[in-house]
Specification:
alpha/beta, 7-stranded mixed β-sheet, about 30% helix, about 525 residues, single chain, 8-stranded mixed β-sheet
Length: about 525
């Protein structure tokens, strides 16, 4: 296989090695040796008001920062970025005011930091002085600023040639005259989470020409080797021999054969086990139930769930929560061919249950079914699957909000709460019992789609629930929209792969370790 420049691509790492550096610094904003300074600004009746952290800068500007921002039309609303020249008042050449909104929540601060750093692409050194970094702040505040800044410093450049594209900020200094306790640990945690999300983004952005099921499994092997995770990989022969009819059936139409990856993290003091299951369709054409062209061009992202599980496990291995975690990546490429599965075929899922395939474009639930049954053999206390599963998720919740379903109401609400704390919007959805009848099959135990049109996201969740072992708590995250941003960048979220669900899965693992879940 060739790289974008026509050279043979070497095996191993597919993702970027580039990571922006970040550290705490106690220097005064007026004299710190950087190219740009980022401060926060909030709305007020009389005009934008500089937020905590900007005092030193305002003094250097003779108290005229508010006046300057007002003259430039700044309002302080969330997501707003205003740039002004320093004109020699400070060492930095540019001042960036990031809007925090009326309520400077942790997520608003993360997004402000990300938007500001993203706007400074092509800049070498940036000082960030947002609220929470100094006296009165907390370690959580420091993490929010650091994580937002790092997530904003992202660019997927693996296939670009030339130097027309601006590279991300090289170095970020978090300026604090009196950093709160635990600040260094908070910055290190932010580095770990950002690296996890970057891994997911890179994998989702990688074109399918360079990310076959074998490639993705190889990337999992690389991550496992670097982090100390245990790993097992089943190839196409092992899948057939093992009875994994869902993964094998979906993958049989492609020249790139499927894989099932099992990763595991263990803690010597753990008393609970969490199983994570990710959908890993490296390209989804729809199979013989072919997608229209306009719905296919972003289907390289259909492995976002598996990428999120891999990214989360890389972070979990670094953070060390007291919980055992196993992760399954159910990987296949869904293509039409003379060997592809056909509508009306019947597959035997791992464990024996049969599925009538009425639509080959409802393939994600088939690979997940195998992995869910297999995950049950690890005797987990909780199974969480994550998948870019349904277009109905976008219809119901839009492009930024994950749909969360579960076989237990308390689990569903706690998973939603974990996602919100991680900074990833989500919404709990029901699994109405009456929708199960639509999945009845005339020839098999269950059909892979419903005979009814409505409630597609919920029907998919009901299908998956059929493969969760009795007595095991389970939650399902549908990230079809949040996984891939087809619009313009916003906050710390770039165009393309977003890294959705990785931080949520890490938070869930920590909540299981703490006895919250």
């Amino acid at each position: 296989m060739l790289d974008p420049k026509g050279r043979n691509r070497s095996p191993g790492r597919l993702t970027s090695c580039y990571v922006t550096s970040i550290s705490l610094d106690s220097a005064a904003l007026a004299s710190i040796d950087v190219d740009a300074i980022v401060v926060g600004v909030a709305p007020a009746e009389a005009g934008p008001v500089p937020a905590a952290g900007a005092e030193d800068l305002d003094r250097a500007l003779d108290g005229r920062l508010t006046e300057a921002l007002g003259a430039l039309g700044a309002t302080g609303k969330a997501g707003e970025i205003t740039k002004l020249p320093a004109l020699g008042a400070v060492t930095a050449k540019v001042i960036v005011a990031a809007g925090l909104g009326e309520t400077p929540s942790a997520e608003n601060v993360r997004r402000a930091a990300g938007a500001a750093v993203r706007s400074l692409a092509g800049t070498a050194r940036v000082a960030v002085a947002l609220p929470g970094l100094s006296a009165g702040g907390s370690a959580e505040d420091v993490e929010a600023v650091a994580l937002g800044a790092l997530l904003g410093a992202y660019s997927f450049d693996s296939y670009r040639t030339g130097d027309q594209h601006k590279s991300p900020v090289e170095e970020i200094l978090l300026v604090s005259s009196a950093a709160p306790g635990g600040a260094e640990a908070a910055v290190e945690r932010a580095r770990t989470l950002a690296a996890s999300v970057t891994l997911v983004r890179d994998l989702v952005n990688t074109p399918p020409s360079h990310l076959s099921p074998e490639d993705l499994a190889g990337e999992a092997e690389r991550v496992a080797g670097e982090t100390g995770l245990s790993i097992e990989v089943l190839d196409e022969k092992g899948l057939v021999e093992g009875g994994y009819g869902g993964i094998a059936g979906v993958g049989q139409g492609s020249v790139n054969p499927p894989r099932l990856v099992r990763l595991s993290y263990t803690h010597p003091e753990a008393s609970k086990t969490l199983a994570l299951v990710g959908k890993g369709i490296t390209f989804d054409s729809g199979g013989l139930s072919l997608k229209p062209a306009e719905a296919m061009d972003w289907m390289k992202s259909d492995m976002g769930g598996a990428a999120a599980v891999l990214g989360a496990l890389s972070a979990i291995a670094a953070l060390g929560p007291r919980v055992n975690v196993v992760g399954y990546l159910a990987i296949a490429e869904n293509m039409p061919s003379g060997t592809a599965q056909r509508p009306s075929d019947v597959l035997r899922i791992y464990g024996g249950k049969t599925v009538e395939v009425l639509n080959t474009d409802a393939e994600g639930r088939l690979v997940l079914a195998d992995a869910l049954v297999r995950a049950g053999e690890d005797s987990p206390d909780l199974i969480v699957d994550v998948a870019t599963l349904t277009g109905a998720q976008l219809v119901a919740l839009g492009t930024r909000t994950t749909g969360v379903m579960a076989n237990d109401d308390d689990v569903r609400e706690k998973v939603v709460a974990a996602a919100e704390r991680a900074g990833e919007p989500s919404w709990g959805m029901p699994l109405p019992a009456e929708l199960r009848k639509g999945l009845d099959s005339a020839v098999a135990d269950i059909a892979n789609i419903s005979g009814e049109r409505w409630g597609g996201m919920l029907v998919a969740g009901i299908f998956l629930k059929e493969f969760v072992p009795d007595g095991v708590k389970w939650a399902h995250l549908d990230i079809a929209g949040p996984s891939f941003n087809k619009g313009e960048p916003y906050g710390y979220t770039p165009k393309g792969g977003t890294g959705a669900a990785a931080r949520t899965l890490v938070q869930i693992a920590e909540d299981v370790a703490a006895g919250i879940l």
